[in-house]
Amino acid sequence: MTPYATLPFAQTLRLSAEQTDRFALQGYVILPGFLPDELTSRLRDEADRWVDQGLRQKSIACAVDPATHGLPPVMELELPAHGELVGYEPLLDVLGQLMGPDFVFHHLHSDRQRPDLPGKPWHHDYEQRPQTDRAHTMIHTLHYLDGLDASTSSLVVLPGSHLEVAEKDARAHLGTGELPGEVVIDELPPGSTVVVHSALFHARRALPGGQRGKDRYFIDASYCQVGPVWPPVKPYWRHMLRRAQELGLGEGRPELFAERHFTEYTRPA
């Protein structure tokens, strides 16, 4: 069961010592009901548009084969509520408490995941090639617009695994199987956010026995601590950062969309 009840999120947006310790030692912290209802509702409507109008598939095609498809007609952060989420000041304040005041936006993904979507095997998302150290922090903020419950697939994390230096797929051969010490996050109210160190091994575990539940609204926004240069994951990353600047997202934070924090794009093997 989700252990968020013992970690109440302060309305002042100041994380408790227990929360910051949990992030440092276990690699994640849960913020139940973090996003306001009004923003959550607009994000949900935009996620429907993103999926139903084929914008998500076009974005994927542009990332997989940029030579053929060029730039996507619309990026997630160009949707008003999604752009607002990227620069949402309470979220950025939390990130500053966990990795210092200077960090850069990395990417944004949005989806309405089907109830019959298979699980996603154990993996981590720390962008480093090759994987050599964990000297700097990268964070994925996982936003569950409708929360999580018995009718959705669950998020499973392996506490402390972010301290290992391992390839992203080092545990992929285990599928989504149960691991000693795992924590299952399967009960969250709408608008909840799980902040994970990007090197934390985690999985999406489907409902057991082929059960059919409901759609799972999910947004993943990622940020990196300033220091090293980070590999981008989208070939049009410069276009993405420039559009964010043009849209005025994250005003007053000059590092948030600065190109100098990234290497050139190389397609993963």
What would the keywords be for this entry?
20% strand, 269 residues, Jelly Rolls, alpha+beta, five-stranded antiparallel β-sheet, globular, 25% helix, 9 strands
Give a written overview of the molecule.
This protein is an alpha+beta fold. It has a domain at 21-115 and 135-143 and 187-199 and 212-261: Jelly Rolls, CATH 2.60.120.620. The chain is built from seven helices and nine strands. A five-stranded antiparallel β-sheet has the order 1-7-4-9-2. α2 (37-52) crosses α5. The longest helix has 16 residues, at 37-52. The protein is globular. It starts with 16 loop residues before the first helix and ends in a 23-residue tail after the last helix. The relative contact order is 0.22.
CATH superfamily of the domain at 21-115 and 135-143 and 187-199 and 212-261: q2cbj1_9rhob like domain
Q: Tell me the number of helical segments per DSSP (H or I, 4 or more residues long).
A: 7
* DSSP strand count: 9
Give me the strand/helix succession.
HEHHHHHEEEEEEEEH
